[in-house]
């Protein structure tokens, strides 16, 4: 098995993160540092990451959906001591890591798992699924702006792919808009609305593909059902 897959399957991190660890010289096989990406792990090999031996038995796979609150970072630890999503699943013994990212000020659906293969599939640019967000934006969400968002906008050197956009509510000074996008550029939804002249005031992710946030309370998690796990794996 390829080294990055071996590390991901053991639940240490995603396959992409494993590549970084390998490239940075943090991974050893049988005591020798390996930086070659394609290295194969053979039966009986002892692999260590940052000096810690990887368990031979892969960890039990755990899949949860969390409703990320405001002011949490999507990371396992933070050098600035901010709250992390890891704290929301602290009572689960397995070390789960987030699938993709949500901004500090974005709320809503985030999947956390120790299944590195699923993380890899769901975050790979080739397989990007539609993610649904509900944005509260300042100002008027005119038909022209909606059309621009649907077609694609320039968010600074990158033109977004067609998006699905529905205005849910127009208030006197703000609007509530549902937007579905397949890509996952940094702060993409905020930048898309900014590109058409509407500042995002609040942003919530409500679905990843058909997986819905539903009534999950802020800051809480629920285990995914077998059907949901199979659905995500087959995306
Ligand atoms: N787009 C954003 O701008 N922020 C997020 O957190 C997710 C998508």
* Major pleated sheet: 9 strands, mixed
Q: In percent, how much strand structure appears in the residues?
A: 25-35%
SS field, number of helical segments:
6
Gyration radius over CA:
20 Å
Report helical residue fraction. 10-25%
Query: Which sequence of SSEs, written as H and E, runs from N to C?
Result: HHEEEEEEEHEHEEHEEEH
* Strand-pairing-aware structural class: alpha+beta
How far is the first residue's CA from the last residue's CA? 23 Å
Give the tally of β-strands: 13
- How much is the average pLDDT? 93
Structure ligands: uracil
Point out poorly predicted stretches: none
Large-scale geometry: elongated
Q: How is the topology of this model organized?
A:
Blueprint: H1 3-9, H2 15-23, E1 27-29, E2 32-33, E3 47-49, E4 52-53, E5 63-68, E6 97-98, E7 106-113, H3 116-123, E8 131-138, H4 143-151, E9 164-170, E10 174-181, H5 188-195, E11 200-208, E12 211-212, E13 221-223, H6 226-233
Parallel strand pairs: 7-11
Antiparallel strand pairs: 1-2, 1-3, 3-4, 5-7, 5-13, 6-7, 8-10, 8-11, 9-10, 11-12
Helix pairs in contact: 1-2
Describe the structure.
The protein has 235 residues and is α+β, with helices and mostly antiparallel strands. Helices cover 21% and strands 27% of the residues. Strands 5, 6, 7, 8, 9, 10, 11, 12 and 13 form a nine-stranded mixed sheet that branches. Strand 11 and strand 12 form a beta hairpin. The radius of gyration is 20 Å and the shape is elongated. The model has no long low-confidence stretch (mean pLDDT 93). It binds uracil. Uracil binds next to helix 5. The site of uracil has 8 residues, from helix 5.
